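Subject: mismatched residue count in predicted assembly?

I count 650 residues in my input, but I want to confirm that the predicted structure covers every chain. Input:
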Amino acid sequence: MSLPTDDLVSPFTLEYTYKRSTGPVIGRFLAGLRDGQLLGVRTLTGDVLVPPTEYEPTTGDAVTDEFVEVGPEGTVSTWTWISNPGPKDPVSVPFAWAMVHLDGASTPMLHVVLSPEASLKTGARVRAKFAETRVGHIRDLAGFEVVT
Amino acid sequence: MRSISIAGIAQLPSKLAEHHMDAAELVQAVTALALADAGIERKQIGFVCSGSSDYIMGQPFSFVMALDGVGAWPPIRESHVEMDGAWALYEAWVRLQHGDIDTALVYSFGKSSVGNVDDALGMQLDPYYVAPLGVSPMALAALQARALLDARFANERDFAQAVMRARLAGARNPNIPTPTATTVDALLAAPWVASPLRAHDAAVRTDGAAAIVLRAGGPGPKITGFAHRIEPHALGVRDLTTSPSARRAADDAGASRIDVAEIHTPYASQETILRNALGLNDRMLVNPSGGTLVAETPMVAGLLRVVEATRAIRDGAHRALAHATSGPCLQHNLVCVLEST
Amino acid sequence: MSAPVTQMKAPTRLEYLVHAGATTTTFLHSILKGQLVGRRCPVCHKVYIPPRGACPTCAVLCTDEVPVSNSGTVTTFSIVRIPFEGQRLTPPYACAHIVLDGADVPLLHIVGGCSVDEVRVGMRVEAVWLEIPQPTLATVTWFKPNGEPDRAVNDRGEVVP
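Triage response: the counts match. Full output below for your records.
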């Protein structure tokens, strides 16, 4: 068998318009973002998970119903600079992804840092920047900016 | 535990693009080779298990279409995992422990040339907090790599040396695209794509297929240990500089006195983590095939490590370790230990 | 406290460039020439159309190309009476399994050119082709009655020879 020289090719898009139920814990966090607030949830052992989940990820235990406001400042625990953002990236100009340990939180969270590359380092202090239009979504947080 | 041997192995050459054969044809070809290698007829096979991903293939229920290649008539005992074929091998090994059947055929296939593998792998991320951000697997691996540098467990030269070793060994592997010759300094001169990672720190993605025939007892390398462990998906609760799941899997599988290891490293920076977690050292031969940095077929790469470990035993090694990984930043790790008989 | 959040939009979109591969490309090229070409299994000799790269019962590659007839027999059918998104035809219309003369497995297609009430098992039909063919099975608009006497179809959906 030989491949015909004019091998047929067709674009194909697999697209689903899912809506997800947030549940009470994630929903509370997303509502907080919409209202310009960063929330964590307290675990049975006293830790504050940010972003909050309905269970403690390492033990599987349910979390408490105590929500704790954290941030809006925090510390970069690791980061990467994206010099050529692609179409799926949340920003079209060079930016950083970072794990940010918000003040008052026990765990770091992933988001973008919208500051120049030279200002980024592990341990850098950053501050949350909220999007202008907010609907109850992780991208209601536009990202973080390095505090100088 | 019932003693299970690797009775037959096969792979199709890993290519940058395989546009000629569809999934069923890939499966037909690779399973026919594995069965011939084992000297077993299709009709003698007691259980068939495959690993593949619809998101990678761009076709819902692609594994059902691919069943044309194994001849599912009269009806066969069959199962599928939407994962790397290494996990299908694990399921088949567990299935053979039941004792009612003696042989199993395991295969996997994948095409990275059809779509965007990074976008497809993004589908496995937390759908509330991580996937909607649009972060790529390479950016997540870069966060892990930076943590590794900050902890002084590795430096960027280590990453480049992992790529160099892979390319040098890969140059002798007839089943992969010929790696480009380079030097460590040339690699380090390349720009960062997701700092501290460079484009060449990511595996070269390929199309391909692999298959293994398992048999209870009989000749062939014996599986002396087989285990996998997973970590939480929330990156913030994991220590990214180590791989407790790989370490536990290696302990569970009794990974000691290893001569050769074939490890699955989607990114060069992860080799340091895995060498530490799996207890590998310079006395062992690591990735004689070149490993996944020079050819990584999605959903096949892990199963192919077991194929390569089997080849190493056939070439004279006494004990070989095969490793597969899945999920962002080495979330899920599998270890299979083989011993010559 | 302000309104709770209970749902979030989570659309997914993956883009692909699908290559038809050798088997399907050959089939679609034959359609451009107004011909339906299947493939025969070298072991069980069944002729598959659309062609399959591997015989699903024998697990060997189907390498022989076999032209099949434009005419065939309806072996089962269903009348679609409800509208749905992306529908190409206006209901009611008949979806049918048609075993083309020279083939061993049915082709799923549309029976048109007659009232849906006339569609029946055993009915003889022939392909109606678009004037300007495209490399797709939709180049056959549908199958219309060809006026030949009905054929017998057994309980297993096979046309009795």
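Strands of chain A lie at 9-21, 39-42, 48-49, 67-69, 73-82, 95-102, 109-113, 125-130, 141-146. Marking this ticket as 'not a bug'.
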